[in-house]
Amino acid sequence: MRILGIETSCDETGLAIYDSECGLLAHVLHSQTDMHAEYGGVVPELASRDHIRRLTPLLKKILKQAELELADIDGVAYTSGPGLLGALLTGASYGRALAWSLGIPAIAVHHMEGHLLAPMLEKPAPEFPFLALLVSGGHTLLVEVDAIGRYRRLGESVDDAAGEAFDKTAQLLGLPYPGGPALAKLAEKGNPTRYRFPRPMTDRPGLDFSFSGLKTFALYTVNNEPRDDQTRADIARAFEDAVVDVMVIKCRRALEQTGLQRIVIAGGVGANQRLRAALKEMAEKRGARLFYPRIEFCTDNGAMIAYAGYVRMQHQSPGDLQIRAQARWGVDELVPPA
Ligand code: KG4
Ligand code: ZN
Questions:
Q1: What is the pLDDT of residue 43?
Q2: How far is the centre of ligand 1, averaged over its atoms, from the C-alpha of 180 (Å)?
């Protein structure tokens, strides 16, 4: 069984083909970051229009890469939500129409389930149950994962998502969009002892996060300190250390509460090297193990959608011909494939 995955929830057009026998056959991606950079963030209408322009050329490219014909595809998985509604609609209509024209099933995939299952594309893949830290531009979630579709939300951000906080702080430091990777790079040259940012919501019980205060703290620090390169790097480092520390504290707490022995990190912020290293150290100290996808599958991609679609399609009936796109959709609303 070969599944074509289509991701268009935000500013990346990603396609991939997953084969039940051989695993991932090919994946292609077009990132719109250069297009949105001049506006300092994603412009939804431009995102949708660009997805429409890219989908057919990317489909041709991936078929060539995988040395396959359209007739070799057995099913289509498309990102159905959450995300930007217009952007979601492009991939959803394209995927649904393609499947209809080929007489094959199409399945609507939850973007965060895609992120959550992305580490399954690696070897060794984590076994169920595990704790998942999902950290992207739009979400910060701690989830207890018992099986496919059995997700219990343990905690989430009460305000900004972790990636959003990275992006906004990066903007304050004069870095280009998307800020996360740029801030992490600047932080490499930073002195970790010059500034200390607060660790929000760690001094009280619970597994929720808050990042908007860190952004405000960064704003005051930037405004009250000199503007030289070393100061900017020192602020970036202090911000990154605070985010990483908060996540390690909450993940440790979640492992304690649940008794789980495996932890998965996924989503764009999961590409952060300092976060990966700190979580690995914490997990190993507790005799637990950390799993994560390769860097390119941390940020949005088609491979995670093809895989999640494949997993669900094995057990789920194809359903009707509806084009499904929903901007808001909680990961704990999902149910196991029937
Ligand atoms: O998962 P993703 O590609 O898109 C969403 O579903 O939101 O995540 C994008 C987010 C952006 O906020 C970006 O700045 C952040 O992930 N990000 C990083 C790094 N790479 C990407 N944040 C911190 N460190 C990184 N290395
Ligand atoms: Zn994402």
A1: 97
A2: 6
